[in-house]
Amino acid sequence: MDNVASTFVLAQNKPPDQDPELRQAKRARIDEEDEDEPLISPDLRYIEEFHGEHASTYGTAPTPFELLQEKQNRDGLSMYAPFADKEEWDLSCWLLESVTKTAADKFLKLDITKSRVQPSFGSAHTWMKHIDQLPTGPEWKCVRISADATNVQVVSEEDEDEDDEVFELWMRDPVDAVQELIGNPALKEHIAYAPERVYADAEGKERRFDEMWTADWWWQTQEKIPTGGTVASVILSTDKTQLSQFRGDKVAYPVYLTLGNIAKGIRRQPSKHASILIGYLPVSKLESFDNPSTTAYRLFHFSMRHILRSMADAGRNGVYMTCADGYIRRVFPILAAYIADHPEQCLVACCKQNRCPRCLVGRDERGDLKKSAKRQPNHTLETLGAQQDGLYPPSFLTQGLQEVYAPFWSDLPYSDIFSCISSDILHQLHQGVFKDHLLKWCTKLVRGGGDNFDRRFQAMPIYSGLRHFTKGISHISQWTAGEHKHVQRVFVAALAGSQDDGRVVTAARALLDFITLAQYHSHTTATLERMRTALKIFHRNKSAFIELEARVPDHFNISKLHSLLHYIETIMALGSLDGLNSEHTERLHIDFAKQAYRGTNHKDYVVQMTLWLQRREATALRESYLSWRACMHDNCKPPSEPSLVEEGLSDSDEAPIYSGAPWIAKKSPHPRVSVSALEESYGASGFVDSLTLFLQEEGLLRPGFHPNPHDRFDVYNSTSLYMPPDVHLNPNSLRISVKATAQRSNGTRKAESPARWDTILFETDPVARREKGGLNGKRLQVAELHVVFRLPDHLISPSKDPGPLAYVHLFRKLGALDPETGMYRLVRATRQLMPRALIIPLSKIVRPCHISPRFGQGRVPSSWLKGKSIERAEEFLLNKYIDTAMFEAYNIPLQ
Description:
Blueprint: H1 4-7, E1 9-11, H2 20-24, E2 45-49, E3 57-60, H3 64-75, H4 86-98, H5 101-108, H6 111-117, H7 124-132, E4 141-147, E5 152-154, E6 165-171, H8 174-182, E7 196-199, E8 207-209, H9 216-224, E9 230-238, E10 241-242, E11 251-252, E12 254-259, H10 264-267, E13 276-280, H11 292-317, E14 319-322, E15 327-339, H12 342-349, H13 377-388, H14 394-398, H15 417-420, H16 425-445, H17 449-458, H18 481-495, H19 502-518, E16 523-524, H20 525-541, H21 543-547, H22 559-562, H23 567-574, H24 582-598, H25 605-634, E17 670-674, H26 675-681, H27 687-697, E18 712-716, E19 718-722, E20 735-741, E21 756-757, E22 759-763, H28 766-772, E23 780-790, E24 805-810, E25 825-826, E26 830-831, E27 834-835, E28 837-841, E29 845-849, E30 851-853, H29 869-872, E31 876-878, H30 884-891
Parallel strand pairs: 9-15
Antiparallel strand pairs: 1-2, 2-7, 3-15, 4-5, 4-6, 6-13, 7-8, 8-16, 9-12, 10-11, 12-13, 14-15, 17-18, 18-23, 19-20, 20-21, 22-23, 22-29, 23-24, 24-28, 25-31, 26-27, 30-31
């Protein structure tokens, strides 16, 4: 890579799912930096394009939206047709989303509705006829499947055998689904058609992996398909879900399809409709079969094979499709990833659940840190075929296979099903390794047992966005992904000092490091190496759990623990795992299964669910069309950027683009607060002296005017901070609120709300921090925020207004790291036994931070509970795991 300029090009400093030009253009360029842009850490992306001919276009064609517009114009119809106008369309959407069909019928038949609203439909029946006229997605069809002890096949009602059990498979053509997604004009700015390699440096040493088109699988697959073809990277996910909540055993088994061509930030949003339901698999307990497990495997594979058979032919030969940008391409739908939990992964891989679905690791070797040979589709098919022929090959038993003679993936071209199986953060990391294992092991080792461990969580200081476990964690009856994440954010701090063997905390830290890194939105070669290191450290120290009898039995043959070995290869092949997480599948269940079931009469419900879904898809598609028409009319002018006014935004206002400065409400909720009230209610001792010192040092004292106890100040409850964009952060979670509130009354029926003083990091040397970043006592300092206020007019001249200010209590500067937790130790800074106070401009606040008491080995005092430990404890830890930005800041070495 000597001639770097001809190999890589530098793209804009925007995350991949926020930069449409980066996705659309196949030849990137070096952009000039805007001197007026705020100073932020750039996300440099040096892009290497695919070397061969790819994603060739074969002319243009109107998109579905353009065809619909042309038809409406030709027939003289409104864009809302078959509805009369926008108001009637809005009414229809509201009825569909908010009320049942019966309630809608009653509403439409009310006299006031007929006389005043006067819709063109007078009953639910005629209303549904209007909706059924809307264009919709692929057509549903039902296939009847017969199964006996040896065979599974499609049958007609006339050919059904009374001795066989018959199932219904509801399905849609996956190729039609791919066509709908890749041709949806609403997704035009978020679709990629070709692979690329992305680097974080001009020398090409630091590879970046985030979107699927930046990873290895797409590049390698592009080399295999015919020249000029376009890869449609199909992502499938399956998972059973309970439909009935309080009674009954109604279950659905949906099959979802989406495309890796669509930016993962869009795929994760259900409102973008970037995932399509292509099937409901048969569900049965198979009680009439002697071997229900084997029959379940065969029934699943037969059903999936029947659904995907059109995709097999399209994957070999390609299909000409009109894409969202209006160009015709020869598209090859190829299975790239399969999202499922561990039992489902084994079902797909045709192996038993005590084996790895991706590799041939021995049943008793899953606890070791060693790589095993990968499962090979051809070898697996040969073994299954030999078993079917009665040859009983030894490899059938050594590989832990099930008797499936026609796996659904056997006909899919260019796909290695075992490499397609995605790592699953929700079930493998959160629910599996962390909750089911590490949490249980560590709870056994805490002095005082689970009750004392609960007290540590009860004593945790409050932090914006962090759940406060007022009853501890042992009482959580139903764990969700949110609970797992919140516990993990304070787990190491709670565990520290709980027992003598340092290997326990070391192992826990390493596993939390791995879990945190695995959730990054963008990876580099360096972050993947950190994941490897964390896994090695855990395995070096895991023996402590057995020696201390926390892990019984005395081995680590745990499938979900072994699965961690495959995370790095998954990221390198398919991109970052936030785009392949089964959390998204669980969310889709709400729209495609649970709500659909609630819209039925619960009898013969699957056919009703498909009709319910079809109508909502038609409505969503029309909404996208209307947005497209509005965009065409307005020429898609981007909204103007908000002006950076001093007052900032209220809590209800839209968050601005990152400006590097905190924001407060436009109007003070507590105007003209006296100094005595600040000292009594806000703990602002020595407020006047601190303010005088600040004004003197900044040269802001107005001649003849000095702060005094009779002055009054406008006080604010909080300030909003906008974190600078970072490749590892969720771009939708950059706004953080920091609170400074006094104790307040909630009336006679509720207890008073206690005072809340959040802790923050503020700059002591802005130039050094921006140059070197990270955490360092010479650049950043921790403080407790007590008052956010503005100076009264008589103390300042308009030309020297410092803007909003903050009164804070200081902690001592960051010093040595705690050897047990790897976090900074903190103690309060005092002067003459009083808190050391300081006034700082609000603009110096960098971010909120979370500090945890440095618990000892004894029982947590009762006075520390309910979050009051921040007032009682003497020593604290600067929590490394509170969020990704803080975790990454700890990683930057001191300089």
